Amino acid sequence: MKKYVAEFIGTFTLVLFGCxxxxxxxxxxxxxxxxxxxxxxxxxxxxGIGPVSGCHINPAVSLGFFAAGRMTGRDLAGYIxxxxxGAIAAAAVLAVIAKGLLGGYSLASNGLGQNGWGEGYLxxxxxxxxxxxxxxxxxxxxxxxxGSTQGGAPTQMAGLAIGITLVAxxxxxxxxxxxSVNPARSLGPALFVGGxxxxxxxMFLIVPSVAGILGGTIFRTKVLAV
Length: 226
Description:
With 226 residues, the protein is an all-alpha fold.
């Protein structure tokens, strides 16, 4: 149970600080600041809860570990439940904070840092571009995670390497989809924003999950394993 609680706390932190930066300070810090908020939150949790759960804080990553044969089905289910609940709780807290703006705050108009694509969403990229980005970015992210945490790797530096990778992914992809690479991160805000966010969340649940499984399979078949 400690592992599942750790995953709840880690995902809560990632979503609150990452999406929170986009909502509260996005205009001031820009895409680069948001990218660093997500990456730094991940680095902090990697060292904070990593010794307990490995700090997946992402269903796609857990699916990758499962596909690689590095976690059980029971733990997979527990991790995903903890991650999803953590993301929902973080989105709820962020909604309360955002609505505390004295001038008023509309979730429908301003959102909670939810992911998306198409006309009217950030860079205005098509679904095809969004899917390709999420697939490739998640796959590379999972490869970095599985590779840097496998036996023989300098695992003490894994948290830093993984966090830097997440920053790079955000710098590249915020304009495309807002960057998911994490089904829980996408689901939490979408549930509270509703509308277009909830109608598009399917892609962010499916594509990163498929990429995670593909990444795990690459390691299970020893293509990249030490």
